[in-house]
Design the sequence.
């Protein structure tokens, strides 16, 4: 009998036949997010699950799934999954890096430019019928070319952002747990600095770290105080990397110049004060939202789920490889 795989939410259609080749698929073709109790009931008989960053794959959910062998996340970030609990049970966890790198870096730059040149504020102004004439100082923003960008986390997306920044003639600084290979530093012309120094020297600070216990609230009061008063903070990583209350206060007090955010601490809830501010650009977590990219992400997650359950090929992106040893 074929193993059973749950697909928790609507996915791009390419994913389903990939799974069906090796599994019986329980496809929740809906935009609704299954609550923890419903997820537990659904997973009682499942050996695999293709899930999304909105699904709470907690220890309790994993414990309620006695047959589970693989959790395949349609995203690069997997902070919604208790990987420790999965690993203890020998459950393989997979994600979808690589295919979304360029799209996410493009969005990071779109946010940087939008915030620097006040695009949303300018559009709001025009749509509100306020535009009377060309004025020499109307909606003037900040320079991008020749400015300094501080990239926090030089993984795939951080590197892709650095390449774009070089194209804009920017000076590139980065922080990372480990120094990048010399050849990569040369190619990106990037200089590694401690976070506090990077914050003090950057005109734009862009976050590209995964959400972990270490990076939770990595940007809070001391870090915001270290930033330059005109600097713009960009986040396309995960919301809780920033202490959102501290950020709102910093923006209100003019401690920093602005923020451009695709992710939030309690999605989809946005602090009302943030919505009131004019020096912020706010997007609904669409960093990798390109149809071709999202389709590849769904197919990749399905392929890895089927690979583990079918055993016909090794899964390609395992986040806890120790379970395969
Ligand atoms: C999206 O946020 C992802 O982690 O892929």
Sequence:
């Amino acid at each position: 009998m074929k193993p059973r795989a749950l697909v928790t939410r609507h996915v791009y259609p390419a994913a389903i036949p990939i799974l069906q080749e090796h599994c019986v698929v329980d496809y929740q073709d809906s935009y609704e997010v299954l609550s923890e109790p419903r997820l537990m009931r659904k997973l009682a008989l499942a050996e695999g699950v293709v899930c999304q960053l909105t699904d709470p794959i907690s220890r309790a959910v994993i414990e309620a799934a006695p047959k589970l062998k693989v959790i395949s996340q349609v995203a690069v970030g997997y902070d919604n999954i208790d990987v420790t609990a999965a690993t203890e049970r020998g459950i393989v966890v997979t994600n979808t890096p690589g295919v979304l790198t360029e799209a996410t870096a493009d969005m990071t730059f779109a946010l940087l430019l939008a915030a620097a040149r006040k695009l949303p504020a300018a559009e709001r102004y025009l749509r509100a019928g306020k535009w009377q004439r060309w004025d020499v100082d109307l909606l003037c923003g900040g320079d991008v070319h020749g400015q300094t960008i501080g990239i926090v986390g030089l993984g795939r997306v951080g590197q892709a952002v650095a390449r774009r920044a070089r194209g804009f003639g920017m000076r590139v600084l980065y922080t990372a747990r480990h120094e990048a290979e010399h050849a990569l530093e040369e190619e990106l012309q990037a200089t590694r600095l401690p976070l506090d120094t990077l914050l003090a020297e950057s005109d734009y600070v862009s976050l590209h770290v995964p959400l972990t216990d270490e990076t939770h609230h990595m940007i809070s009061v001391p870090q915001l105080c270290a930033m330059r008063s005109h600097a713009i903070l960009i986040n396309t990583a995960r919301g809780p990397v920033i202490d959102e209350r501290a950020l709102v206060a910093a923006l209100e007090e003019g401690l920093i110049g602005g923020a451009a955010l695709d992710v939030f601490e309690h999605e989809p809830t946005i602090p009302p004060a943030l919505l009131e501010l004019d020096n912020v650009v706010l997007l609904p977590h669409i960093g990798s939202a390109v149809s071709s990219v999202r389709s590849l992400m769904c197919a990749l997650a399905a392929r890895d789920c089927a690979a583990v359950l079918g055993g016909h090929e090794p899964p390609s992106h395992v986040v806890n490889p120790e379970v395969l040893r």
